[in-house]
Write a structure and sequence with these properties.
It is built from 3 helices and 6 strands, in the order αββββαββα. The protein has about 100 residues and is α+β, with helices and mostly antiparallel strands.
């Protein structure tokens, strides 16, 4: 009888630990709020950062360096929401101003 009670308690503790772990993982997940074109975002030249309004009242942000490194997710520092920034990378010919590139 005591062994059955211990086994049940052990299973309950394991299930409780698993549920707690799943809740912690869910809390750390970021929620994709929207996809936004880069040209819709506000650019701050001094900070070299693009901003977009977040529904929480703060702003999503992504830096030029982030974009150059292939990052496309802008984060809000005040909540868990993120947005995907849509943009086309310029080729070397486009950056040099060559207009004959197709």
């Amino acid at each position: 009888y005591q062994r059955r009670v211990r086994d049940r308690n052990s299973r309950a503790e394991t299930m409780s630990s698993t549920a707690t772990l799943l809740l912690l993982e869910e809390e750390e997940e970021e929620v994709m709020y929207d996809e936004v074109d880069l040209d819709e975002m506000e650019f701050d030249e001094d900070a070299e950062t693009y901003y977009y309004p977040c529904p929480c009242g703060d702003r999503f942000f992504i830096t030029i360096q982030d974009l150059e490194e292939g990052e496309s997710i802008a984060r809000c520092p005040s909540c868990s929401l993120v947005i995907r920034v849509l943009y086309c990378e310029a080729s070397d010919d486009q950056e040099k101003g060559d207009e004959d590139v197709y």
